[in-house]
Write a structure and sequence with these properties.
Strand content: over 45%
Structural class: mainly beta
Largest sheet: 6 strands, mixed
CATH topology of the largest domain: Immunoglobulin-like
Number of domains: 5
Shape: rod-shaped
Distance between the termini: 216 Å
CATH class of the largest domain: Mainly Beta
CATH architecture of the largest domain: Sandwich
Number of strands: 42
Length: 542
């Protein structure tokens, strides 16, 4: 350094001015590094150039700046880095020296950060008037997309169906905040141009709700969907069997059809009731296609009038009740027989139950008597039902009023026995007539039977009379209600003399009388001519 002293004296009081010039071995602009006045500061600032800056290591929590000296002007002794956007921070980091690096440890993540880099001279409060500027897109630390859930009210049933309007609520959550949620209800893929979710919305018919959310970090969630199933339409159901007003019994198959255009038929419940009583469930079934059927065991139910109906329920819970079907239950059997019959002629006894029954079972027929001559009626031992009816061939042998009863074994019916009304059996065609001796007048020691009479008369007795009833009988010994003419031929066994008399029967009988005359022992035979010839002897002893 050189110093020159200059002396200048003035003429006023010997006063003078001493000027000392200092020469420094530094550039002239160095003298501007110390602020001495507004003019010199402005000149100094104007000489600072714009530094060079490069960024690296950009991340959610850091941005590194590498600063180099300006191409012109004085060399800075340091640098100040300020953030100007999105939020202003005067000094995020500083660099010491003509060049170097520093790091912003708290950038605004997920946004574009703008920085200004100022050159600084040591000991000066002034910085370069024109900073270097740079902008970097700082990624967000949140790389996880938001999660959106969907719910509906009311909740669907177990099958996933509703039968009324549904309110859908979308709820999104994210660590960095949800920017928005978008959705569609027609099944199409939603975009940020789709309907933006602002609150619960109503769905009135079946739809697929597709939706997604985006967070403030720019993460976009994968598309999600919610199937809303709504069925307001009731199903249809019809009972097709058994036929209305039919007679049923045993195990009855109840069947029909059911259909639903929405959610489909889930179940069919079949019900019955006796008369106007309460409905009770007899079975529940799931249709196969449109057809359904169930069994109705009726053996334990009383005979009478019943009704059937079916209740169909679809998957959404809508129900429909079919029209009722009236039926008559008959789980007992009845016996019918003709009111009149003829001995020796078969007649038909009919057993009846519900039309669908068939089978063969042992039977016992009762109520028919044996004939007067000891013949037994002809009775069956089994009955074969076809479509609910069995016929028995029965041959009576005894006349008179009789009640036919039938006991049935092994049939799945409510009763095991039944009776018909009284049947009046009349005798068959008369085949024989007899004399039934009624009395022998004046006789002593008379011994008579239905076919003969022996009389012992006392000493001195002469004529004697005897009376009898002529009776017609059928083959089984039943009195035949005949009106035929009967011929009686009397033969004196001592003289072989004969005499013939005719008698007209009234209701199968006629009165007959004879008088025996003379003395001594008399033995005569009386022959009845009526179909089969009968000899009835009358012996009189004196």
């Amino acid at each position: 350094m050189r110093v020159r002293r200059l002396s200048r004296r003035a003429g006023l009081g010997g006063a003078g001015l001493l000027v000392t010039t200092v020469a420094l071995a530094v550039p002239a602009w160095a003298f501007l590094s110390v602020s001495s006045s507004g003019a010199t500061a402005a000149a100094r600032v104007a000489t600072l150039g714009t530094p060079g800056v490069a960024t690296s290591g950009v991340g959610p929590t850091s941005v590194t700046f590498t600063v180099s000296a300006p191409a012109t002007g004085p060399t800075p002794t340091g640098y100040r880095v300020a953030r100007t956007a999105p939020s202003a921070v005067a000094g995020v980091c500083t660099v010491s020296g003509a060049s170097g690096s520093c790091t912003d440890a708290a950038p605004a993540a997920g946004q574009t950060n703008t920085y200004a880099v100022y050159a600084v001279l040591a000991g000066s409060a002034w910085e370069s008037p024109v900073p270097a500027t740079t902008s970097v897109a700082v990624p967000n630390g949140d790389t996880t997309p938001p999660v959106t859930t969907a719910s509906q009210s009311p909740l669907p049933n177990a099958a996933g169906w509703s039968s009324s309007d549904v309110v859908v609520t979308l709820s999104a959550s994210d660590a960095s905040g949800v920017a928005g949620t978008w959705y569609t209800t027609d099944g199409s893929t939603p975009t940020t141009s789709s309907t933006r979710y602002t609150g619960p919305f109503t769905v009135s018919s079946s739809a697929t709700v597709r939706y997604f959310s985006k967070d403030t970090a720019g993460n976009t969630e994968a598309f999600r969907s919610l199937a809303v199933q709504i069925d307001r339409t009731t199903p249809t159901v019809v009972v097709t069997s058994p036929a209305g007003s039919s007679v049923q019994g045993g195990t009855v198959t109840v069947s029909g059809t059911a259909a639903d255009t929405g959610s489909g038929v889930a179940s069919v419940v079949v019900q019955c009731r006796a008369g106007s009583g309460a409905w009770t469930t007899i079975g529940s079934t799931t249709p196969s296609g449109s057809s359904w059927s169930t069994s109705w065991p009726t053996a334990g139910l009383a005979d009478g009038s019943y009704s059937l109906q079916a209740v169909a329920t679809d998957a959404a819970g809508n129900t429909t009740t079919s029209a009722t079907v009236p039926v008559t239950l008959r789980n007992t059997f009845t016996v019918t027989a003709p009111s009149t019959a003829t001995a020796g002629t078969p007649f038909t006894v009919t057993l009846s139950t519900y039309p669908g029954y068939s089978g063969t079972h042992p039977v016992t027929v009762s109520g028919l008597r044996s004939s007067p001559n000891g013949s037994a009626p002809t009775l069956p031992t089994s009955a074969t039902f076809t479509n609910g009816t069995a016929t028995l061939s029965v041959t009576p042998v005894s006349s008179g009023s009789q009640t036919v009863g039938v006991s049935l074994s092994g049939a799945p019916l409510s009763n095991t026995s039944a009776t018909a009304g009284n049947a009046t059996v009349v005798a068959g065609a008369p085949t024989i007539a007899t004399l039934g001796w009624a009395s022998v007048a004046g006789g002593k020691n008379a011994t008579c039977s239905a076919t003969s009479c022996a009389v012992t008369l006392g000493t001195g007795q002469g004529n004697n009379s005897a009376s009898a009833t002529i009776t017609a009988y059928d083959t089984y010994g039943n009195v035949a209600p005949s009106t035929a003419t009967v011929t009686v031929t009397m033969t004196n066994l001592s003289t072989n003399a004969t005499s013939t008399s005719s008698y007209v029967l009234a209701g199968g009988t006629a009165a007959w009388a004879t008088t025996e005359t003379g003395s001594g022992n008399v033995s005569k035979r009386y022959v009845i001519s009526f179909g089969t010839v009968q000899s009835i002897p009358l012996t009189v002893t004196r």
